[in-house]
Specification:
Number of domains: 2
Number of strands: 21
Largest sheet: 8 strands, mixed
CATH class of the largest domain: Mainly Beta
Strand content: 35-45%
Structural class: mainly beta
Protein backbone atom coordinates (compact mmCIF):
# COMPACT_ATOMS: atom_id res chain seq x y z
CA UNK A 1 0.00 0.00 0.00
CA UNK A 2 1.36 3.45 -0.92
CA UNK A 3 1.88 6.24 1.57
CA UNK A 4 -1.06 8.28 0.23
CA UNK A 5 -3.31 5.24 0.67
CA UNK A 6 -2.14 4.75 4.25
CA UNK A 7 -2.77 8.39 4.99
CA UNK A 8 -6.20 8.30 3.38
CA UNK A 9 -7.18 5.32 5.53
CA UNK A 10 -6.01 7.09 8.68
CA UNK A 11 -7.82 10.28 7.72
CA UNK A 12 -11.04 8.39 7.06
CA UNK A 13 -10.81 6.74 10.47
CA UNK A 14 -10.36 10.15 12.11
CA UNK A 15 -13.29 11.58 10.18
CA UNK A 16 -15.54 8.67 11.03
CA UNK A 17 -14.64 8.88 14.72
CA UNK A 18 -15.13 12.62 15.03
CA UNK A 19 -18.05 13.21 12.68
CA UNK A 20 -19.96 10.27 11.20
CA UNK A 21 -21.73 12.51 8.64
CA UNK A 22 -18.50 14.00 7.32
CA UNK A 23 -17.80 13.56 3.60
CA UNK A 24 -14.01 13.30 3.09
CA UNK A 25 -12.21 13.61 -0.22
CA UNK A 26 -8.86 14.48 -1.75
CA UNK A 27 -8.97 17.82 -3.54
CA UNK A 28 -8.33 16.18 -6.91
CA UNK A 29 -11.41 14.00 -6.52
CA UNK A 30 -13.95 16.37 -4.98
CA UNK A 31 -16.70 17.48 -7.40
CA UNK A 32 -16.79 21.00 -5.93
CA UNK A 33 -13.12 21.62 -6.80
CA UNK A 34 -13.23 23.20 -10.27
CA UNK A 35 -11.01 25.66 -12.08
CA UNK A 36 -12.05 28.48 -14.44
CA UNK A 37 -10.67 28.05 -17.94
CA UNK A 38 -8.64 31.29 -17.72
CA UNK A 39 -6.61 29.84 -14.82
CA UNK A 40 -5.17 26.89 -16.73
CA UNK A 41 -1.47 27.60 -16.06
CA UNK A 42 0.45 27.59 -12.75
CA UNK A 43 1.36 31.02 -11.44
CA UNK A 44 3.38 32.46 -8.56
CA UNK A 45 2.12 35.68 -7.01
CA UNK A 46 2.64 38.10 -4.13
CA UNK A 47 -0.51 38.31 -2.04
CA UNK A 48 -0.27 41.60 -0.15
CA UNK A 49 1.84 43.93 -2.32
CA UNK A 50 1.02 45.62 -5.61
CA UNK A 51 3.12 47.41 -8.20
CA UNK A 52 3.80 50.97 -7.04
CA UNK A 53 3.15 50.36 -3.33
CA UNK A 54 5.05 52.30 -0.67
CA UNK A 55 5.74 50.52 2.62
CA UNK A 56 7.66 50.78 5.85
CA UNK A 57 9.85 47.87 6.91
CA UNK A 58 9.93 45.46 8.63
CA UNK A 59 7.04 44.25 6.46
CA UNK A 60 5.48 40.77 6.39
CA UNK A 61 5.19 39.84 2.71
CA UNK A 62 2.94 36.92 1.77
CA UNK A 63 2.96 34.83 -1.41
CA UNK A 64 0.83 32.20 -3.09
CA UNK A 65 0.74 29.67 -5.89
CA UNK A 66 -1.90 28.61 -8.41
CA UNK A 67 -2.28 25.08 -9.82
CA UNK A 68 0.92 23.66 -8.31
CA UNK A 69 2.04 22.27 -4.97
CA UNK A 70 4.63 23.24 -2.39
CA UNK A 71 7.15 20.78 -0.93
CA UNK A 72 10.19 21.19 1.26
CA UNK A 73 13.49 20.35 -0.42
CA UNK A 74 14.15 17.28 1.75
CA UNK A 75 12.00 15.01 -0.45
CA UNK A 76 11.64 15.21 -4.26
CA UNK A 77 7.94 15.19 -5.21
CA UNK A 78 6.68 15.55 -8.77
CA UNK A 79 4.38 18.52 -9.33
CA UNK A 80 5.80 20.55 -6.44
CA UNK A 81 8.42 23.20 -5.80
CA UNK A 82 9.37 25.93 -3.34
CA UNK A 83 9.24 29.71 -3.48
CA UNK A 84 12.08 32.12 -4.21
CA UNK A 85 12.05 35.90 -3.97
CA UNK A 86 14.15 37.72 -6.57
CA UNK A 87 15.22 41.18 -5.42
CA UNK A 88 16.32 43.60 -8.15
CA UNK A 89 16.98 40.65 -10.46
CA UNK A 90 15.55 39.63 -13.81
CA UNK A 91 14.54 36.04 -14.50
CA UNK A 92 17.54 33.76 -15.06
CA UNK A 93 18.77 33.41 -18.63
CA UNK A 94 19.31 29.66 -18.16
CA UNK A 95 16.46 27.73 -16.53
CA UNK A 96 18.55 24.55 -16.39
CA UNK A 97 20.92 25.84 -13.69
CA UNK A 98 20.17 26.07 -9.96
CA UNK A 99 19.46 29.47 -8.46
CA UNK A 100 22.28 31.01 -6.41
CA UNK A 101 22.08 31.70 -2.68
CA UNK A 102 22.51 35.40 -1.88
CA UNK A 103 20.56 38.49 -0.82
CA UNK A 104 19.03 38.82 -4.30
CA UNK A 105 17.82 35.20 -4.50
CA UNK A 106 16.02 34.40 -1.25
CA UNK A 107 15.08 30.71 -0.89
CA UNK A 108 12.13 29.24 1.02
CA UNK A 109 13.08 25.57 0.93
CA UNK A 110 11.12 24.57 4.03
CA UNK A 111 7.75 25.35 2.43
CA UNK A 112 7.29 28.88 3.78
CA UNK A 113 4.53 31.14 2.46
CA UNK A 114 5.86 34.46 3.75
CA UNK A 115 8.95 36.46 4.64
CA UNK A 116 9.70 39.60 6.63
CA UNK A 117 11.28 42.29 4.47
CA UNK A 118 13.89 44.40 6.26
CA UNK A 119 14.98 46.55 3.33
CA UNK A 120 16.50 49.96 3.86
CA UNK A 121 14.71 53.00 2.33
CA UNK A 122 14.84 52.90 -1.45
CA UNK A 123 13.15 51.44 -4.52
CA UNK A 124 13.09 47.69 -5.15
CA UNK A 125 11.88 45.34 -7.86
CA UNK A 126 10.44 42.06 -6.56
CA UNK A 127 9.45 38.86 -8.35
CA UNK A 128 8.52 35.35 -7.19
CA UNK A 129 9.98 32.28 -8.91
CA UNK A 130 9.29 28.60 -8.21
CA UNK A 131 12.03 25.96 -8.33
CA UNK A 132 12.41 22.24 -7.61
CA UNK A 133 14.28 20.56 -4.75
CA UNK A 134 17.57 21.12 -6.61
CA UNK A 135 16.72 24.86 -6.89
CA UNK A 136 16.38 24.55 -10.66
CA UNK A 137 13.61 26.97 -11.67
CA UNK A 138 10.33 26.10 -13.30
CA UNK A 139 8.71 28.43 -15.81
CA UNK A 140 6.39 29.47 -12.97
CA UNK A 141 6.87 33.04 -11.82
CA UNK A 142 5.13 36.31 -11.05
CA UNK A 143 5.23 39.59 -12.88
CA UNK A 144 7.78 42.00 -11.39
CA UNK A 145 6.49 44.69 -9.07
CA UNK A 146 8.27 47.88 -8.04
CA UNK A 147 7.91 49.06 -4.45
CA UNK A 148 9.32 51.94 -2.43
CA UNK A 149 10.49 51.56 1.16
CA UNK A 150 10.00 54.89 2.89
CA UNK A 151 11.35 53.97 6.32
CA UNK A 152 13.16 51.17 8.15
CA UNK A 153 11.76 51.11 11.67
CA UNK A 154 14.31 50.18 14.30
CA UNK A 155 11.63 50.07 17.00
CA UNK A 156 9.92 46.99 15.45
CA UNK A 157 11.27 43.49 15.97
CA UNK A 158 10.81 41.56 12.67
CA UNK A 159 9.94 38.40 14.63
CA UNK A 160 6.99 40.20 16.24
CA UNK A 161 5.22 40.36 12.86
CA UNK A 162 4.89 36.57 12.63
CA UNK A 163 2.01 34.98 14.55
CA UNK A 164 1.83 31.23 14.09
CA UNK A 165 -1.44 30.16 12.50
CA UNK A 166 -3.43 29.74 9.30
CA UNK A 167 -6.01 31.91 7.60
CA UNK A 168 -8.26 32.26 4.56
CA UNK A 169 -7.20 35.38 2.65
CA UNK A 170 -10.07 35.30 0.14
CA UNK A 171 -13.03 35.32 0.05
CA UNK A 172 -13.81 37.69 2.91
CA UNK A 173 -16.12 36.73 5.74
CA UNK A 174 -19.72 37.49 4.75
CA UNK A 175 -18.92 37.84 1.04
CA UNK A 176 -21.28 36.73 -1.74
CA UNK A 177 -19.48 34.85 -4.53
CA UNK A 178 -20.24 33.01 -7.72
CA UNK A 179 -18.51 29.79 -8.63
CA UNK A 180 -15.97 28.81 -9.36
CA UNK A 181 -14.44 31.15 -6.77
CA UNK A 182 -10.92 31.14 -5.42
CA UNK A 183 -10.13 30.34 -1.79
CA UNK A 184 -6.62 31.46 -0.90
CA UNK A 185 -4.94 29.75 2.05
CA UNK A 186 -2.09 31.16 4.12
CA UNK A 187 0.20 29.73 6.80
CA UNK A 188 2.18 32.07 9.04
CA UNK A 189 5.13 30.75 11.01
CA UNK A 190 4.39 27.24 9.69
CA UNK A 191 5.64 25.26 6.71
CA UNK A 192 3.45 23.73 4.00
CA UNK A 193 4.42 20.66 1.99
CA UNK A 194 3.08 17.78 -0.06
CA UNK A 195 2.16 14.94 2.31
CA UNK A 196 5.11 12.85 1.08
CA UNK A 197 7.39 15.22 2.99
CA UNK A 198 7.17 13.53 6.39
CA UNK A 199 8.43 16.44 8.45
CA UNK A 200 7.22 17.14 11.99
CA UNK A 201 7.32 20.86 11.18
CA UNK A 202 5.40 20.64 7.88
CA UNK A 203 1.74 20.11 7.13
CA UNK A 204 -0.91 20.26 4.42
CA UNK A 205 -4.14 22.22 4.30
CA UNK A 206 -7.57 20.77 4.99
CA UNK A 207 -10.73 22.73 4.21
CA UNK A 208 -14.00 21.86 5.96
CA UNK A 209 -17.19 23.17 4.35
CA UNK A 210 -20.50 23.18 6.20
CA UNK A 211 -23.82 23.84 4.49
CA UNK A 212 -25.85 22.33 1.68
CA UNK A 213 -25.82 18.82 3.12
CA UNK A 214 -23.24 16.77 5.02
CA UNK A 215 -20.04 18.64 5.93
CA UNK A 216 -17.32 18.27 3.33
CA UNK A 217 -13.68 17.82 4.40
CA UNK A 218 -11.31 18.37 1.46
CA UNK A 219 -7.67 17.31 1.84
CA UNK A 220 -4.97 19.28 0.00
CA UNK A 221 -2.35 16.58 0.44
CA UNK A 222 -0.65 17.65 -2.81
CA UNK A 223 0.79 20.77 -1.16
CA UNK A 224 -1.66 23.16 -2.80
CA UNK A 225 -2.17 26.49 -1.09
CA UNK A 226 -5.37 27.57 -2.78
CA UNK A 227 -8.45 26.04 -4.33
CA UNK A 228 -11.28 26.93 -6.69
CA UNK A 229 -14.73 25.84 -5.53
CA UNK A 230 -18.10 25.56 -7.23
CA UNK A 231 -20.63 24.26 -4.68
CA UNK A 232 -24.39 24.53 -5.27
CA UNK A 233 -25.92 27.96 -4.48
CA UNK A 234 -26.47 28.48 -0.77
CA UNK A 235 -24.86 29.59 2.48
CA UNK A 236 -21.66 27.94 3.71
CA UNK A 237 -19.08 28.07 6.46
CA UNK A 238 -15.44 27.49 5.49
CA UNK A 239 -12.90 26.38 8.09
CA UNK A 240 -9.21 25.98 7.24
CA UNK A 241 -6.73 23.87 9.17
CA UNK A 242 -3.17 22.63 8.76
CA UNK A 243 -2.61 18.94 9.50
CA UNK A 244 0.79 17.43 10.24
CA UNK A 245 2.39 15.39 7.47
CA UNK A 246 4.12 13.21 10.06
CA UNK A 247 0.96 12.54 12.10
CA UNK A 248 -2.46 12.77 10.38
CA UNK A 249 -4.12 12.85 13.80
CA UNK A 250 -2.32 16.10 14.73
CA UNK A 251 -3.75 19.48 13.79
CA UNK A 252 -1.00 22.11 13.70
CA UNK A 253 -3.31 25.13 13.42
CA UNK A 254 -6.88 26.10 12.61
CA UNK A 255 -8.52 29.34 11.52
CA UNK A 256 -11.83 30.79 12.63
CA UNK A 257 -14.58 29.80 10.17
CA UNK A 258 -15.78 32.33 7.64
CA UNK A 259 -19.25 32.56 6.09
CA UNK A 260 -19.86 32.88 2.36
CA UNK A 261 -22.96 32.91 0.21
CA UNK A 262 -22.75 31.26 -3.20
CA UNK A 263 -25.08 32.98 -5.65
CA UNK A 264 -26.71 31.53 -8.72
Amino acid sequence: MTRPSLYACAAVLVACFLAPALALSASSDHPWVQFPLQKSEPENYITNLRDGDSIETPFLMKFGLTRFGIAGITTPVQGTGHHHLLVNRDLPLDFTKPLPFNDQYIHFGKGQMETVLTFKPGTYTLRMLLADHHHIPYFIYSKPIRITVTRLRTDVDPKSLVTQGVSILTPRDGETVKGPFRVQFHASGLNVSHMNVKDNHAGHFVLTIEGGGPPQRILYTNGWTETWLKPPPGSYKLKLSLVSNADPFKELAAAQPISVTVGK
